[in-house]
Every structure is written in C-alpha cells, then in structure tokens.
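Page header: ASSEMBLY MODEL / two components / 513 residues total.
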Amino acid sequence: MKPAIALSIENLSFSYSGKKALDQVSFKICAGECTLLLGPNGAGKSTLFSLITRLYDTHEGRIELCGFDIKQQTRQALAKLGVVFQQTTLDMDLTVMQNLRYHTALHGLGRKEAVQRIQKELERLNMFDRRFEKIRQLNGGHRRRVEIARALLHKPALLLLDEPTVGLDVPSRLAIVDYVHQLAVDEKLAVLWASHLIDEIYPNDHLIVLHKGQIKANGTVDDVLKITNTTMVKDAFYNLTQGGQA
Amino acid sequence: MNMMHYWRAMWGIIGRELWRFVTQRERFISALVRPLVWLFVFAAGFRAALGLAITPPYETYILYEVYITPGLIGMIQLFNGMQSSLSMVYDREMGSMRILMVCPLPRWFLLLSKLLAGTGVSILQVYVFLAIAWFYDIHAPWQGYLWVLPTLMLSGLMLGALGLLLSSFIKQLENFAGVMNFVIFPMFFMSTALYPLWKMKESSVLLSQMAQYNPFSQAVELIRFALYGQFNKYAFIYTLCAFMLFMTAAIIGYNPSKGMMVKKGGG
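Prediction written out in full:
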C-alpha cells in the first residue's frame, strides 16, 4: 500500500513587491518520509514555510496538508501541522510545563489528555524531570527539545522544522537530527526539514534543493547524486546552486 | 472543531496573559505608579488652578482629584492597550506570535481572546488603583464599583482593539516610540480625562470638538457615569462603535490575504 501524502505543493509561486521568491514549486511528501530542504540563504525556504503555515497567503499555486487545502480548509490543514520555527518561540518566563499546556489549550486538548501527552513527549526527550523549570534556565539544545515536544503534542501528520539546529553545539545537534529521523520511522510522521547543513542528511532521506525560488533537484540522496554526477551531497549541492553556500 | 476547543484555547490565552502579568512585578508596579503620580502630584497641584462647576454625573461640587479619577482609569486602560500591542509586536519579532497564528482556530477568535486577556489585566489594575484611591478619600457610591465593571470591559476592549490595530501596522519594535507621541499623548491630553469639555471650550472650540469626538473621551465619560451608578447611552454607543471599527480593522490587518502581514514579511 502506498503511504498517504502528508504535504502536496503544486505550482506554488510567490513574489515580494514584484520580485519572485518562489517560482512554480511542486513536490509531495508522504507519511514516514524525512525530506531535507536544502538551499543557500535567500533560496526561498522561509517563504515556503510561511506559506505552508499560512502566515502568508497563497496567491498562485496550491498547498494541501493531508488532502486539506490550506487556503480553503485552513483549520483542518493546520490541525495536521507541527512546526518548529528557526527562532525560539517559547515564553522565556514560563516553565516548560506552562509553555506546553498553553500549546495543548490552543489545540483544544483537555487537561488529562494534555498532561499524558506532555509526559510522553518529554520523557522521550529526557526532559520530563525539568518540566517545572523556566525556559530561561534551559540551554539552547534543551529549549529545542521542548519545542520539538511541543510540535508533536497534537499528533500532527507533518512536522516542519526551519533550521532547528542553528546555534547548537555538535552533540545537541546530532541528538536532535537523530531523534527526528527516528520519529519519521516510528510514528510514520512526514518531516520537512529546512537546513543548510549537509551532515544532517541521512542516506535514506529525500532531498529537495531550492535555489533562487526554483527546485533544482528533488529525489532520494542517490537520485540527486546521480543527476549531478557526483559522489557527495556537498558537491551535488555546489553544482546545483552554482557555488551557493551550503 | 467543537465549542470546547474554543473555550480551552480562550482560557489558555487569558491564563497565560494573567500569569505573565502577575509574575512581572515591575510591570504591575509601573502600571500603578503612573496614574498614582498623576493623582497624588498633578491633581493635588492642579486643584487650585481649576474650578469645577457642577456637571453630571456629579451632584455637588467635587475636588479635582475626584474629577480626574475616571480619566486616570482610562489612562490605565489606554496604556495597557498599548502595552498589549507592544507585546504583540515583540511577540511577532521574537516569533512567539507564530505559535498563536498557526493554531487551528479562526484568526479573529485568537485576536479577540488576546484582547480579552489584555482587558482582564487592565481591569485588575483599575481595581487596585481604585482601592488605593479609596484610602486617599476618593469614594464613589459602592454600587458604582460594580456598575463600572461592564464599562471597564467595553472601554478596555475598545482601547485594546486600537492597540491591536496599531500593532498590525507597526513593522518593528523601534517604531513603537512613535505610537507614544502620535497616539497615546494626543489621545490622553485631547480628551475629557483631565478637564471637562466646557472648560476646554473656553480656551479653544476646535480643541473641545476634537476632544468630544475622541473615542477615549467617550470611554472616560462612560466610566465616569458608571462610577456614579448612571448610564451614559451616547458614550456607550460611541465606545461600542469605536471598538467594532478598531476590531474589524485589526482583524483585516492580521488577515494574511488582506492585511499587513505580507507587506511586513510575516508574523
């Protein structure tokens, strides 16, 4: 049986005052698939994320989350989405628990269910013991873990991560990369991960290379290496973006 | 989406705002110090300079401190409304606004919940202020303290909606200083908060007319009458209309397909 499509993007274009940020972007992500969105700065990754999360309006093209059109069925679509933004979006003066309870309230979860899910997600990330600490007291890696836990509380079908490991030390970064890849397998979660760090790519991942608002490559790691006639993702990326910084 | 979802989300937003307010002691104190300085220092000094005739809702001659109290209540709510809008701009710059905006509820409902939360905080501040004023011998009839509650709700919502509207236009936190100069101060000084309309008319007819059409004036008058157990219908309708106008404009401002979000580059 073919896995369900969690995210479908068709002919998506977007401009800022006449300047094209995205140009006819189309791709699909299925359940259980981890897709790395690679692109140099200014490639259009953040614009794409803002469109998927409906922070910007879609003027041209179509975005569907689990079959729900983001423009027509916004709420049903957003209910399927978990997001970790590039900047920390936690309230520094509230505790881990308070931040997570706020999120469960926004998603309409009752107290009992919310507490159970928070415990489960925090335990998986070894953060349960720190649930009564204020976010301000946590280091960058731990804050990121809380944000990932938060994004999963309402059981989304698609997890969006916008360069979540920026500014983290190597062990924290590796732990998060590993955890998210495992989630995709265990929970059949579709993952779209924007990054410019090549070492975050696993051999089974899907790659989408975005450059100047256009998709330059879309396929498995092997596919991308084959079409660029290279043996390393770094070189493939370099070729596709004409030397753009990875 | 069931009603329970709306209910939980609304209380989640209100609870978060109240908790933040209670834990931010400096914010609580500064919100009180401002009107108290006006009451204890400005009003005391101004008392001799300004003679007040008997005008409704007052039935006897009153001290200037008594006159200025509803204006200072309005001031608390005005500053609180602007403070909320400042925190919206801050949240947007820092990104936490995004969490609110990507939750599966209509945007108007999220903004209204945020507004209710801010209004709740301002009402708390007002009652603490009124309690301190009571010890300073500024007494309203005891029913007035109850009657004023619904009017505080409306005036708080109206001023909060104005703040919300402004926050949809403000691109960066730094631009907020402009709001102080171009919105808060003109709105406060060009109103009936500090001096009655008839007194203003003596010096400038134009100024008194501007004060009359200032929604802040009407909110202050609504509070003033309610504090003395009276209902000012005109002020009520005016404040209600101003709230609906500001709220509609704010919702449009935060709508990704119509508002300022795209022009600004996101939420």
